[in-house]
Structures are given as structure tokens and as C-alpha cells.
Amino acid sequence: MSKPRIVVWGTPQLTVAIAESLLDWADIVAIITTPDTPQGRKRILTPSPLKVFGESNSIAVYSPHSLKNPETSELLRTLSADIWLIIAYGKIIPQAILDIMPHRVLNIHPSRLPQYRGPSPIQASLRNGDTSTAVSLMELDHLMDHGPIIAQEEMSISPTDTYIELEAKVITVAADILRQNLIPFMNGEITPWVQDDTQASIVKMVQKIDGLIDWESQSAEYIMNAYRAYTIWPQVYTYLNTDKKIVFDRLDLEHISDIKLKPGYWQLDSSNHTLIIGTKIGNIAVKELTVEGKNTITADSFANGYAGVYFVNKKQD
Known about the structure:
Blueprint (H helix, E strand, L loop, with lengths): L4 E6 L2 H10 L4 E6 L4 E3 L4 E3 L2 H8 L3 E3 L7 H9 L4 E5 L7 H4 L6 E5 L11 H7 L4 E8 L9 E8 L6 H24 L33 H10 L6 E5 L4 E7 L14 E4 L4 E5 L4 E9 L4 E3 H7 L5 E2 L5
Parallel strand pairs: 1-2, 1-6, 2-5, 6-7
Antiparallel strand pairs: 3-4, 7-8, 8-9, 10-11, 10-16, 11-14, 12-13, 13-14, 14-15
């Protein structure tokens, strides 16, 4: 058959990377993305990564402010496409919009559905210390990540994978799952299977507070997994007993000392150039960190400049 005609819906860089993989075997006829949003201290209106991709590839781009007005519905009806592909669009798509393309609105979701329905499945896999996950290709319905599964492909998670490495794996697997299954699905060669709702779990949107370390209640394993999950944002952070905020930019996930330390107290491991910090159970090893208002420094530099301080859960009252 001729190249499938696809409308890609999405917003972040993840969507861009998957959309790029379609260019050599599919025809992206249009892009639907979120409106430009204010970014940075000066709140400059900034287009989504997918909008930039579309414009740089001479693809029609639409950024509707609402999916519930008649103008949006009429626009979508004019797009000549075989499939709508939703990848991290960031908004719930109403049933009235889905009805424009019955059984032709598909979604890529980076989890082993029905596990980790919701907006942060990659972070959830890492935060929970999973050793594997999957990418799911599914039909979209009006419920969150609920529709029938067309295909699902497994992938492993290394103990040292952060969000950056796992997202790269997701992109590779998503590109493969689309190439292998989209045309057979369109030809009626694949029968989607219904998800088992009794096995479903929901993950919430990541909040800044999720990166805050609680030395008294969190284990080293929990903090390291949080670091892996939140490498991009919000990162893992804490405070000094002097009230300065500290961001842990780089943890050593392979070389961790078993010395006994009180939660929040530290010792320099000069042989590995890491700051060993005690938690409720075990230690973490920090290689680079940023003190509020200063540049990122190494563990050695921190040890030289901050002797006698320790880490606390929040600013002191």
C-alpha cells in the first residue's frame, strides 16, 4: 500500500524523536500540538518542540486552544489522514473528537499497560526500581490510557539508567513497534485486546516536591531511584542546616560505601571522589552538586568548603 497518512499529536521532544522515525515510511500530513507557552524569567512565548519540528519539515501545524469548540472539530474533519497518532499530547481528547476517526486514533504509551496509566510512566518505572518495562500501542478512548492494546514490546531497564537513557530506549522501541504494527493494523490483520482493568495502576503528574529528599524516612535505594527518575526535572534536592538549597546533579550509582552514617551526615570518599551521605537505610554517593546561588561543584570541592555542615529535610524554621 502507499505510505500511511498520519496526523501526529504531541508536545515534547519525545514526540519529536518518534515523529522523525516516521518520515522515511509514512506521510505526516499535519501536526496537532499545544499552544506556545511563556518560558524563562522573561516569560517569552515559546513553541513546543513538536511545532518546531513540524515547521522545519514543512508540515502543517495546528495549536488549538480548546478541543471542545466547533472550529477545532471542523478543522480536524478537513485533515485527510488514515491514522491520528497521539504521543504525549498533554490534554484529554474528548469523545466528540475521537468520533471523527473511529478506531483510527492510536496512542503510544511508554509502559506495560494497564500498569502505569497516566502522565509519568517513565518516571514511575525508574522511581519504583523496575528492571523492565514496555511500550504499548493502543486505540485511544475517552478514558485515560484505557483503550484496547494493538501491540506491546518489552524492554529492559539497567540499574544505572536515568530518565535520559530510558527515554532513548522508549524512542527506539516505539519507532520499531509503529513500523512493525501500524500497517498490519490498518489492513485488519491485528485484533486489539482489551486491557485488564483489575491490574491497572495510575501515576500522577510529577511535582517539584517529589524531588525533595527526606533523610529520616527515605532509604538510599529510594533516593537513588528518585534521582534516576527526576534527572531532567525536578532533580533531587535537599537543604543544608545553614538553609542553603542543594541540588544533587550527579550520583554514583555503582560505587557506594557501607560505612555507617547518621541520616543527612556525610563523609568524603577521596578515592572515588564522592560525598557519602547517610540515609534511613544505607548511603548514597554524590559526585557533583549545586549549592543555591553558586555553580555546580565536585564532591571534593564541597568537602573543602563546607566542613561541619550537614543535610536536612527542609529549611530550618
